[in-house]
Request: fold
Amino acid sequence: MAEPVITIGRHIIEQERRYPEATGAFSDILLDIAIAAKIISREINRAGLVDIVGSAGKLNVHGEDVRKLDEFADEVIFNALDHSGNLCVMASEEVEDPIPIPEKFPCGNYALLHDPLDGSSNIEANVSLGTIFSIHRKISKGERGGTEDLLQPGHRQVAAGYVVYGSSTMLVYTTGAGVHGFTLEPSIGEFLLSHPSMKIPDPGKKIYSVNEAYYKRWSLGQQKAVDELKDDGFSLRYIGSLVADFHRTLLYGGVFMYPADSTNPRGKLRLLYEAAPLAMVIGEAGGASSDGHGSILEIEPQELHQRTPLYLGNRHLIERAEAAIKADG
Ligand code: P6P
Reply:
């Protein structure tokens, strides 16, 4: 008897059955994200063939060159989720302000924050890109959601995950009951369960992942943290695409770092839709996260697009980095 093929739809429904009070809204959100991921994956894999690669000639809210695929991914996610009645508000790296649910659609009890296409500066080089998403419960009192529903600490996330568009397209998510990975089978357009109950290997491979070009801009403590890893015989692997570097860390172990430095005192990566969702995933997989001093999940957000230093990986490596930073500032 062949093993049953577990699609993401079947997996999410089976997970939902474990929560009698579940309304199904939550499952619908995850399934809508999976649909958006399939559409984005198709366009990325065609990027070399159609005139969708290259700059859209616009800058995003951070003054960064917006690639057409960035715009496309942002629109796909909005269109996949704006009408479902499950969300009360959205936020995107590509959009300055909270994104309201159109008046013509009902509001729901969840808020979605996302980076629609991270690493897009690597598009032409065919480097793996990613989508990162974070889901919170609605806490505001009004019918339509807003900033209050978005500025929540990472420990209140009800779900988080990412899509990595690489040699294959994978969707990895957690709802707090383990981390589960699905690989897209393009011939049937389905995400199939390929990595059930993912755990970061511990001890994992001796890999550290950081952009060493900034070494001279780091604090003494940060420099010491990296020097210690080199002294312990670690190898450096740095793709420069957050989701790709994270996915490797989750599968192989080690530590990813994007530290603060003299040029970026808050680091470069975004708290709400990059650091916090990946921190939930790594935590659920038995690893740890930090901003250099404490867990990413405990940070109380002040602004929608605020940045944070980011450390993700094996717990003992995160703790060693925090100790070095604490000792040497
Ligand atoms: P740096 C890609 O541009 C990105 O936003 C992340 O995906 C990646 O981790 C980081 O920036 C790379 O930044 O400064 O090392 O080029």
Notes: The chain has a mean pLDDT of 93. The domain at 207-327 is CATH 3.40.190.80 (D-Maltodextrin-Binding Protein; domain 2). The two ends are 60 Å apart (CA to CA). The helical segments are 8-16, 25-46, 68-81, 147-150, 220-231, 242-252, 271-284, 315-328.
